[in-house]
Amino acid sequence: MTETVDQVVAKYVQSLGGQQALQNAKTRVMSGTVTNRDLTTANVTVTEKNTGEYRSELSTQPNPTIRATNGTAAWQVGGGGFGGGANPRDLNGFQAQQATRLADFALPLRLKERYQNLAVKPAYETIDAKPVVVLTGNPYPNVTEELAFDRDSGLLVRRTIVSGSTGGFGIMALGEQVDYSDYRDVSGVKVPFTVRHATNMAVTTEKFTDVKINAPVQDSVFAKPAPPPQ
What we know:
Layout: H1 5-16, H2 19-24, E1 27-36, E2 41-49, E3 54-58, E4 65-69, E5 74-77, E6 89-91, H3 93-99, H4 107-114, E7 116-120, E8 125-127, E9 130-140, E10 143-150, E11 156-167, E12 170-186, E13 189-198, E14 203-213
Antiparallel strand pairs: 1-2, 1-14, 2-3, 3-4, 4-5, 5-6, 7-9, 8-9, 9-10, 10-11, 11-12, 12-13, 13-14
Helix pairs in contact: 1-4
């Protein structure tokens, strides 16, 4: 193992198109489908800004399922897996972390800010028979994340998150895994067109068919809406 944290991050940025291309990409709007563990499929639109705002909207019935953050506060409409009520509600703590786990558009340029205690794991690992370099860090207190980068391409292929909570019955660790694949070039920036998110409760696979960089995005889409009239 010879790579340093700085070298891994620099190669990641370069593999996506380079620092300037990423800085020039202010917004990203992606649409496609998401399929859950029960093989139920819904249309999905993900809207992001490179300053950390994120919104995911699923066309579920009878109400859409929406999760969003303006970079500080997070909220949700709908709930559970697919579907749920129409009243927006605030998300805090672990719920907010999990709801916005896929907000990764701003990650490449902010990786060293987002994670504390970044370090390179001392040995190479493999994912799908390909060698990967793994960084470990802490995005939140009591949360450890591993980020696996393809050693050849430099692209991020997997994030593994362990959230530990200490309670009256000891320590309970909750694991999550996010897999990125099918990277394609969009306006000079590489984007993963397939994202799989697995938790102890659910597995979803997003497959995007349309991705736009620097599409017009209003800040209002990230703001928590008022409850619907009764």
